[in-house]
Write a structure and sequence with these properties.
Blueprint: H1 14-43, E1 49-51, E2 56-63, H2 77-99, H3 104-127, E3 130-136, H4 155-178
Antiparallel strand pairs: 1-2, 2-3
């Protein structure tokens, strides 16, 4: 049989083997995220602020909502919604990793987002909220954020943000090369 017309079906685990490095990268992000959160939980009390520089503090904050505490005061139902969205996003990301082999920048972006999403999912399952602890503040943020304080975030959030920027950059570069 001509292999070009009738390629052999993939061997059972070959897709998983191809994405193993990307899953490992996501697992490292989850580990770093959870280790940093455990250290903060062991060191700070809720709301405690530890100034590190003139513009950066460590602070223990609980976020029951989404980014920027969206729906944080919704009464509890939002936790299940954000958990379901996170699980659906992780499932979609794994599928995209499997169906787009060989796209390094794209896969790196997805791994960052996957690791960040999983890190926050672990928090929602274990604590019922996400642990945030990185807080930046500058005067030039005052028009947008009260007191110039950017909402507290964590390593998982950072990975998601960097992954999202990389995803946009990947698409822009792909469009540029096509046109």
């Amino acid at each position: 049989m001509n292999e070009e017309l009738h390629p052999a079906p993939p061997i059972g685990g070959s897709r998983w083997i191809r994405i193993l490095p990307w899953l490992a990268a996501a697992a490292i992000i989850v580990a770093v995220d959870q280790i940093t959160k455990a250290r903060i939980l062991a060191s700070l009390t809720l709301g405690q602020v530890v100034p590190v520089t003139s513009y950066f503090d460590l602070v223990l904050a609980y976020n029951r909502g989404a980014a920027f505490s969206l729906l944080a005061d919704a009464g509890g139902w939002q936790g299940f919604l954000f958990l379901a969205i996170g699980v659906a996003a992780c499932t979609a990301i794994v599928w995209m990793l499997m169906t787009h082999p060989g796209r390094t920048r794209f896969s790196t972006a997805l791994s960052l987002i996957l690791g960040g999403a999983l890190g926050n999912i672990v928090d929602r399952i274990h604590y019922g909220h996400v642990i945030d602890f990185l807080e930046f503040h500058w005067d030039w943020l005052r028009p947008v954020f009260p007191g110039g304080y950017y909402p507290a975030f964590n390593v998982a959030d950072s990975a998601i943000s960097v992954g999202a920027v990389l995803l946009v950059a990947d698409e822009l570069l792909r469009m540029r090369h096509r046109g």
